[in-house]
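New to this. Please check this fold:
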Amino acid sequence: MARKRCILYEVLGFVFWIFIESSLATLSPSGVNYEVVALMAIKTSLHDPYNVLENWDVNSVDPCSWRMVTCSPDGYVSALGLPSQSLSGTLSPGIGNLTNLQSVLLQNNAISGPIPVSIGKLGKLHTLDLSNNKFSGYMPSSLGDLINLNYLRLNNNSLTGQVPESLSNVDSLALVDVSFNNLSGSLPKLSARAFKVVGNPLICGQSSGDNCSLVYPEPLSFPPDNDKDQSHAGASHRVAIAFGVSFGTAFLIVIVVMLLIGWRYQHNKQIFFDVNEQRDAEFCLGNLRRYTFKELRAATDHFNPKNILGKGGFGIVYKGCLNDGTTVAVKRLKDYNVAGGEIQFQTEVETISLAVHRNLLRLWGFCSTENERLLVYPFMPNGSVASRLKDYVHGKPILDWLRRKRIALGTARGLVYLHEQCDPKIIHRDVKAANILLDEYFEAVVGDFGLAKLLDHHESHVSTAVRGTVGHIAPEYLSTGQSSEKTDVFGFGILLLELVTGQKAVDFGKGTNQKVVMLDLVKRLHQEGKLSLMVDKDLRTNFDRIELEEMVQVALLCTQFNPSHRPKMSEVLRMLEGDGLAEKWEASQRAETPRHRAHGNSLPQRYYDLIEESSLVVEAMELSGPR
């Protein structure tokens, strides 16, 4: 008995030691969090004119709450996202000490100096975007040490020298873009599907016709047999004929065998469950984890209806618990083999895996079998904005005015990233309160890319079947089926009104004889100077009246019927942050006419009338609740 007790104590001691070790993993010998030290070194070397790094504090022990910093579930800094923040200065070598980084996004700033050699220490890094800066000097050969790197964007800088040969050792590369620099020398053979080098005169010449815009891996081929003497031409010809006959016969045999195997597989497939669920992924998707169907089925308790978090047009979202105890949201796509289903899966996976931002829902993994398509996301413990707008705690609304403002700002930042910092840009097409999720800190996370469409920079819009939620759909989308980033701006404007009123877009005015949509009623109340009548009654008087007026003005600018009159999301963000709203609003009032014209057609003055007149089928989708 004593021996058993001794063994038990030893086991408990070992577990306790592991716990202590893991809790102190980020502490240096002096007790300082080394990730905090590394991040502060980065902050110190940068010039930050708009104080976006203001809450980076050297006295903090937890950088996971800092702006632009994302942490993994185990508490390590996994992503650094500072795109388009007007930053200058240099990038500190201290970044090499953030050894758990998976994504670094510093594009569209004015950062200069060399790319730190220490960046090669980031062995888990899969996305590195330093494009559109002022980096100079050589590309460090240590980039070849990034064995998990998928996406490398260094375009539009002032880099010189050669593309390091060491990059050819990185087998995981999907995209390398070093275009528009001053690079020279020969190019290494990379495994990347796309290798962009256009705009480097010493490599491509002064002309754009040197086929240098895209370099793909060379296809497998046999070298030409140029060493044969012309006198052997006849013999070669006869050999070629003989080879052709032999090859044709062999090819026929292969086809027959494949048909037999295929028939046997089809004949026996019913005996096995998801025989293909362990096959390789059909496409490379960066650092995403591929789950098995059995694993996700077990995590959701066989997709128990009690675990349903929400339902959407393309599937059902379940709460799940993985073997390691991680809580996740599993989106099980339905009817993937009918029109839109398989496309939907590929769109979500490819789109979300490339979009990394604090205010965007991060895709963790996926499952693809013969019969199933599933997506795995982090679980959002505070649900969606729509699901929490009417929730109380201690007699007060959970979403007070301050949180509603933060939700508006966070959502705007996420959409700015999708529209102006992704290449190609991404249109969400269903921006609404039900699709804005809330993490444990009530930070806004733009979710449900179910309707997202990739839009190339050379295109102004995409035309598709109209899908979305009545009350949130932009007029031009309803009328023509054409969507652009301005479609999302309209949806964001309606979201702002949802935050202000606490009501759904189509439920506002339910008690009247004629149903009134929220946008029309808010416009009328604003014109009559009765802002207090539109504010969520749950807020009582706990809001800032000046901020209310400003938020309503931004919402009305975003929901103008003519899409060309709406601001870009970057302009919307600046207005919400207090810059340029007065000028925009004054200009809109001067230009306002009784009826706007879009695409040459006169639109109704009321949004309600536009919905009634629309002849297009609108598929209303709702996906609320925690995901």
Summary: The domain at 289-354+362-378 is CATH 3.30.200.20 (Phosphorylase Kinase; domain 1). The chain has three domains: 28-204, 289-354+362-378, 385-620. The first helix runs from residue 2 to 23.
